[in-house]
Amino acid sequence: MNPSEAVRLCTLISALSPAQKFTDETPAVWAVVLEDVTLADAMEAVKVLARRQAFIAPADIVPEAKRLRARRLEQVGTPTPNVDPSDAPAYAAEQRALVAAVASGVMDEDGRAVYEAGGRTLTGARAYYALGHRLVERPAIHAAAGGAMRQRVPHR
Q1: For position 121, what pLDDT does the model report?
Q2: Could you give the CA distance from residue 33 to residue 145 in angstroms, rounded to a whole number?
Q3: What are the distances in angstroms from CA 96 to CA 44, 88, 130?
Q4: Section 134-138 average pLDDT
Q5: In the chain, where are the structural domains located?
């Protein structure tokens, strides 16, 4: 979270809890403490926290944001990367990107279904599809499907 995002977060908390004291320095300090929490996760955590407590501190937001991210991962799950597993660095990078996308809420169940349909990667690596028991690049699948379609459709 950057300082301008921390200002937005503190403004939200101040509106929810008018008795909570904030100074001009509060957002800058909160930005440092919450540097590894996204604004979206922090705001979602604040919505949860505001329902059960009158005052909200960064120490409350961090664990709640982690719980929210873990819950998203549990609900949606992480798809298998559409990257050749023999390319270990690319596969690992894609796996990390998938976990981050699901945990942050960027990839929901619909997004997972689109991803699993193939042809996409989050890291820009070449997309691979599972075809039977082997992986093939996307152009090979399209060529195979195109050949099969040409065989079934009579030419005029």
Answers
A1: 85
A2: 53
A3: 22, 12, 20
A4: 51
A5: 3-74, 81-152
